[in-house]
Amino acid sequence: MNSSSGSASFFNKVPWTFLVIIYLVVTQIMEIPLDGVPGFVLIGLGVFVLFAEFFKSGDIGLAVFMIDVITSVIGLVAATVLLCYLVWVMGQQLTFYHWFGYTILLGDAIFSPLNSFRTALRNFGVGA
What we know:
Elements: H1 2-13, H2 17-29, H3 37-56, H4 62-89, H5 96-124
């Protein structure tokens, strides 16, 4: 019983959105094009991250909520910096996969706090 609560606690503390950013940065540094398998890996990773963050936002606590919102905003800023760097400094044209990764981060930044808020309202019996 203790190990399952420890793994759940680990699951709730990990900012999963950073996996998408790290993947995009690593593929850029290693000069791996996102066409083909690396792009499909990004799509799979993005879907996993979106589900993980949405599931994580359903377990509401004030500290977890604040950390989730802060990491979502930091992830959004980091992704924006990465996209701007790719376009303006590297002169690279963005692909579908870049926009997909950014959309996952934007969706997490919007829907996770909304899900947390909805769960908090339900837990407190507001509107019932």
